[in-house]
Specification:
By secondary structure, this protein is an alpha/beta fold. The chain is about 40% helix and about 15% strand. It has 14 helices and 12 strands.
Length: about 375
């Protein structure tokens, strides 16, 4: 874990960094309501709210939100306040939705959370909890790449310039002693920024030789004949690193803490249920993916992808700080302030009430 002084290092987003431009039009698609999410008889609204708008990505690293939607955990805790949903394909579009009030609370990766916080000079969001660790792999064409040293000179995809996996791959490249221009992706390895939806087709066509990607994209590549060359978890202490956080707009947190607490209670309850019922939870997540996108994952993709993800309430704050330092090292971030990005007060209240261990903000919490 970095020293306390390192935890208070400041990070700023380079103004021209394309990561901060919107990667998708609009605010995502509405998620269909599920029969399991009906309001219980006699339930009351929380904070007088008609609804709480929840955002997440349609992938397995956001399975806490998928399962909580599918099984009605959010609606149970929100009572007569309706849980409404929107799904996203890219972090910048979810951050824009949060900023505009189109969503109140969201499940999102660490890099978009860092960039959203720093771009607003610490005024738009807080990370209020963790959700998942792991679920990221380097998958390659075994005919072209047989060892880690063979990655040099090859074309490897990441989802987006400056996103969580892109930063991790750039850092790994640097640790091999290879050189790559972060923005163009040109160098000893060709880093090809490719949307996860099209990465499997790019792999099949031979236009890329592999990809550093989250689940289920990694397992989709394996199903196409790819080989897992490296699991990113193996690069981290205790094999844990944050892949998904829970964020909330600061305005909503200030005005509706009871609603935020209800969503966090649902998240904690969902993670407990997922870890106690992994097979049922996997099926529920896949059912919600099908409801949101119209297509479920086949078992040869779903099963290995699910095994590589750990669901946790701990935001693993020290690893977020390390990921930010990796972005600085890659030249994608410079000098701004991350102090105050976390507010774990309500999460720790919920955890204490549930008899669970509280979690730490690594010195980056609200003072």
């Amino acid at each position: 874990m970095p020293a306390p002084s390192a935890l208070r290092r400041t990070f700023a987003v380079i103004a021209a960094l394309p990561l901060l431009t919107l990667a998708a039009c609009g605010y995502g698609s509405d998620s269909k309501d599920d029969d399991t999410a009906k309001v219980a008889a006699g339930a009351k609204k929380i904070d007088g709210l008609d609804s709480v708008k929840i955002g997440y990505f349609g992938n397995l690293t956001h399975a806490t939100a998928l399962v909580a939607n599918q099984k009605g955990f959010f609606q149970k805790e929100l009572g007569a306040t309706k849980a409404s949903y929107a799904t996203f394909n890219a972090g910048p579009s979810e951050i824009e939705a949060l900023n505009s009030g189109s969503i109140d609370i969201g499940w999102i990766g660490p890099s978009p959370a860092i960039n959203g916080f720093t771009k607003s000079k610490g005024t738009n969001l807080r990370i209020i909890g963790g959700s998942a660790s792991g679920g990221v792999k380097l998958v390659v064409n075994p005919k072209k790449i047989k060892s880690l040293k063979d990655v040099k000179g090859k074309k490897i995809a990441t989802p987006q310039l400056g996103n969580t996996q892109d930063v991790a791959f750039l850092n790994w490249i640097s640790e091999q002693g290879w050189k790559v221009d972060a923005e163009s992706g040109a160098g000893d390895v060709s880093v090809v920024r490719t949307d996860n939806k099209v990465t499997p087709d790019a792999y099949k066509s031979g236009s890329i030789d592999g990809a550093w990607v989250p689940e289920p994209t990694a397992s989709k590549l394996v199903a196409e004949g790819g080989k897992v060359l490296l699991d990113e978890a193996d690069l981290w202490p205790d094999k844990k690193f944050v892949i998904t956080n829970i964020i909330v707009s600061q305005k909503f947190l200030k005005e509706h803490p009871k609603a935020v607490e209800a969503v966090l209670k649902a998240s904690v309850e969902t993670n407990k249920w997922i870890n106690a019922n992994p097979d049922e939870a996997k099926a529920a997540a896949n059912k919600q993916l099908e409801a949101d996108s119209g297509k479920a994952l086949p078992n040869d993709v779903l099963d290995p992808a699910w095994k590589s993800i750990q669901f946790t309430n701990d935001p693993l704050a020290s690893t977020l700080n390390t990921e930010a330092e990796h972005a600085v090292k890659a030249g994608l971030l410079e000098d701004p302030l991350l102090d105050g990005i976390y507010d774990l007060t309500l999460l720790n209240k919920v955890l204490k009430a549930d008899g669970e261990s509280t979690v730490d903000d690594a010195g980056l919490g609200v003072k």
